[in-house]
Amino acid sequence: MTDAPPRDETANDTPGVMTATTRDARGATTGDLPGDTSAAARDTPGGFADTNAETAGVAALAAFLARAAAIVGAEHVSGPDAVDDYLDVYALGDPHAHQPGGAVRPAEVDQVQEVVRAANEFGVALWPVGRGKNLGYGGSAPRQSGTVVLDLGRMNRVLEVDDETASAIVEPGVSFFDLYEELRSRDSRLWASVPDLGWGSVVGNALERGYGYTAHGDHQQFICGLEVVLPTGELIRTGMGAMPNSEAWPLYRGGFGPGFEGLFLQSNLGIVTKMGIWLMPRPERFAACRVAIDRESSLPALVDAMRELGLEGMIDGVVNAANAVGVAAGSSSRERWYDGDGVVPDEIVDTIASDLGIGRWNVKFAVYGSDAMLDLKLARIEGVLAGIPGSRLTAHRYDGAASAEEVEPFDHFAAGIPGMLLAGGVRWRADRPTGAHIGLCPVSPLTGRHVVEAGRVMRTHIEAAGFDYIGGWLGTGRHAVNVLMIFFDAADAEESARVKRAFGELVPLLADAGYGEYRAHLEFMDAVASRFDFNDSSLLHFTRTLKRAVDPRGILAPGKQGVWPL
Ligand SMILES: Cc1cc2nc3c(=O)[nH]c(=O)nc-3n(C[C@H](O)[C@H](O)[C@H](O)COP(=O)(O)OP(=O)(O)OC[C@H]3O[C@@H](n4cnc5c(N)ncnc54)[C@H](O)[C@@H]3O)c2cc1C
Question: How many domains does the chain contain in total?
């Protein structure tokens, strides 16, 4: 493969036009973003500031909210003074830094379309959320203050479940709890994969490329068919859904012609109002497995083993790893172990591991099949792990038809049983309601060398900033999402500022090492996006070209993932 041809480097540096750059040894270019996305550039006449709610003016916002009330009912509209429920509860400092201009809660697709048309008419920006539980990344709050939250929580119907083809169609307000209950009430043979917390949106989580922990844990891979309200209010269906009488909308991704689903993931190009999803047929048996290693030095071998076992098909789905402090943070506060200054000392980490019966590193994953298949898979897993000094495997086997009560709560992940077990797991540094966290998630190859290196960069920096290294990684065959959880007290201004600084410094440090985030908090979307800058940021330039074409008034989620309207 060759690099894309160099872009015109003679273009001037006005917004929207490529800027002169330098080229690195691999042919990639670096330099200013095409079109300066700084606040100053956005505020230029004729630019983005003309169309967003912040500058649309109080009168325009009021007129829009009045129109929205006529569309969805006054009780389903919140004005600018009634948006506390939509603030970022884990804000890094001022929770009003991402202040919604209001909230509108439609219940039907045609209401979404009408609200979008009104937003265009009044020049008011909208920020769609499904359940709005995007905690650690901004919650329900919009990137740009003044943007009105389009809360799709009332659109919470499971529209179809097909046991035969193992698929469903859901609306964006359907939570993981809702889908689970619906499947149980239909006595369905199907399972959905769930993330740690069951209150999130099946659609919102998948659109954010979130993870759960069954064989379908890489949620974006199981999306099949979207219905989308475009920023002009027009309604489209992707794939086979474009044929009104197709029976295969949630079954075949292809459709006829280009595929568009990816355009609407982590995107501000459309509002998803229906999503097809592939579900997992309940297996005959399953095993919830855990591996603990007692020494840090065995981590590279563990990572490599997980990759090989995933590639061989012995492990089904996502491997979820956490260090000892990470496991402790899921169920206890720091004071239980250590109340001194600085980071938790090494000998205390040993105490944590021995008291909780865990390792320095701990992974959990699942395997599925008949008992005979589990025997074979577990024997192979055991054989591979035997080569890793200080590793211990435990496997709890269950019947596929076991009820939630029959499965240990800590094994629910393997059967797609939603819960809130980790909801209190953000109180490591502040054992009170202001306990908060932010996640930094650089992607690397799933190799021992890279996972250790990404962890080293994050650990060195975060410990220097005075925070414990609470690390983990999610592995799916080839890549690892390396997770750094930074816990802090959102009510402590100094601590919040320190987190913000450390996080802001880590983004470029990790990018320099070749690791880009898979997802980012509102505060860091621009910083992360700015490092996806191959060939004069040509991808971002392309996205903004699309943005301009489909959202000429710039009303949908300005700034989402660093994509600002021009
Ligand atoms: C303790 C803890 C554990 C967590 N564990 C996990 C985990 O295991 N896996 C994981 O993935 N995450 C995890 N998270 C992060 C987060 O809570 C989940 O990802 C959660 O599912 C996201 O919130 P939501 O589903 O309500 O999405 P929403 O807040 O509804 O949506 C998220 C974003 O997607 C976009 N969006 C949503 N709906 C639409 C739409 N209809 N059209 C267009 N764009 C849309 C918007 O930009 C929105 O801001 C965890 C968080 C905490 C605090």
Answer: 3
